[in-house]
Design a protein that fits this description.
Helix content is 71%, strand content 9%. The protein has 6 helices and 2 strands; from the N terminus they run βαβααααα. Strands 1-2 form a two-stranded parallel sheet. α3 (42-58) crosses α4 (60-77) and α4 (60-77) crosses α5 (79-93). The longest helix has 18 residues, at 60-77. The termini are close together.
Length: 110
């Protein structure tokens, strides 16, 4: 069983996640797609999606700079710390006490 965490932020992530799920399902395994940011906080998901859509359409150069700095340079320079900071920020905005293992167990019914 496979759990695919994705995000419906307007960048085609869910389409890719669903295509991966379909491939896994068609090969005899079972997969489930979870919109991780929506699960954490619908308000956070709405905010991230709207900011992304606004910046990507109104100022694509700014979006490119933000993306390169935040998601590429930081991940290259501090891969472990960046991941920890990212998940701490998600937890900070969360209305729930997120336990990814609990979510996976509830979703997949292992």
């Amino acid at each position: 069983k496979v759990v695919i965490l994705s995000a419906s932020t307007g960048g085609g992530h869910m389409s890719a996640a669903n295509a991966l799920k379909d491939y896994i399902d068609s090969n005899g395994s079972q997969a489930v797609v979870i919109d991780a940011i929506e699960y954490i906080s619908p308000l956070l998901n709405k905010t991230v999606t709207e900011v992304y859509e606004y910046v990507a359409t109104k100022n694509p150069i700014l979006w490119k700079m933000m993306y390169k700095f935040l998601f590429w340079y930081c991940a290259q320079i501090f891969p472990h710390k960046f991941r920890i900071i990212f998940f701490h920020l998600l937890s900070y905005f969360s209305c729930k006490n997120i336990s990814w293992q609990k979510l996976i167990n509830e979703t997949v019914h292992i």
